[in-house]
Amino acid sequence: METVISSDFIAAFVIGLMGAGHCLGMCGGVAAALTLGIPGQHNGRRWPYLVCYNAGRLISYAIAGAIIGSAFAGMAALSGHATALVSLRLLAAVMMILLALYIGQWWQAITHLERLGQHLWRLISPQAKSLLPLKSPAAALPFGILWGWLPCGLVYSTLSWAAVSGSAASGAAVMLAFGLGTLPAMIAVGSLAQQLQQVLKNLYFKRASALLLLMYGVHTGYIAIKQIL
To answer: For the Urease accessory protein UreH-like transmembrane domain, which residue ranges apply (predicted)?
Structure first.
């Protein structure tokens, strides 16, 4: 079981890292915009804001992972069936395959997941926007916490792995690993690292990343099916 859980952490980190192009599209503009209005527009002034903003995002991801991990672990325990989490793992494998197809720009079906969080986001979005322009790095932390709930197919796909983690702590850890994987893209945007941004947005990079995720998803699904049968 420890090996499976460890692989989930690695998979979550890789999803965040390989989904960099999606992160740039969804949150990149926010990462760049949050530093507008900061006196003395140089990197030394931006870093505290970027660190606090991204720390806030990771806090939200961890909270969501803990909630999902705890809820599904509880349901699995109540069901009394040992195959409950294994079946969920098969679903997580399917989600990873769909995510790979999305990142590779072959099939965009996973974007329909983002509609699920639109109602919640309508309530949160005004609160996040009310914090702009940021007055201090401390204000970037709650801004990041709120923005972490932005509807995102990439996040929702990773939450399926948090769901099969078996506990609140493991679910939080899976989502934290995912958040850490997104950091290179988000820091690149905020610090204006143009060369890294170009690599992350490159279609060949996206498709190479997608193929790796696709193979891992198929492998995970195969193992889950064997355990069910």
So the answer is: 11-218
Residue 210 one-letter amino acid: A
pLDDT value at residue 145? 95
Amino acid 112: pLDDT = 81
CA atoms within 13 Å, Cβ hemisphere of 209: 25
For residues 171 and 76, what is the distance between their CA atoms, to the nearest angstrom? Answer: 14
Greater confidence (68 vs 7) lies with 68
d(CA 132, CA 36): 9
Coil, strand or helix at 202: coil
**133 backbone dihedrals φ, ψ, rounded to 5°:** -75, 150
Per-residue tokens: 220? 């995970």
pTM of the predicted structure, to 2 decimals: 0.85
Amino acid in position 115: R
CB 212 within 8 A of CB 88: no
Calculate mean pLDDT across residues 129-148. Answer: 89
- The full DSSP string for 115-175 is GGGHHHHHHHHHHHHTTPSP-SHHHHHHHHHHHTTS--HHHHHHHHHHHTSSSHHHHHHHH
How far apart, in whole angstroms, are the C-alpha atoms of residue 222 and residue 225?
Answer: 5
pLDDT digits over 80-134, tens only? 665 777 888 888 899 889 988 988 889 888 888 778 788 888 899 899 888 888 8
* DSSP conformational letter for 108: -
Q: What is the residue extent of each domain of the chain?
A: 2-34+41-228
Give the integer Cα–Cα distance in Å for 90 and 225.
7
In terms of residues, how long is the chain?
229
Which residue has tokens 């140089």?
Answer: 42
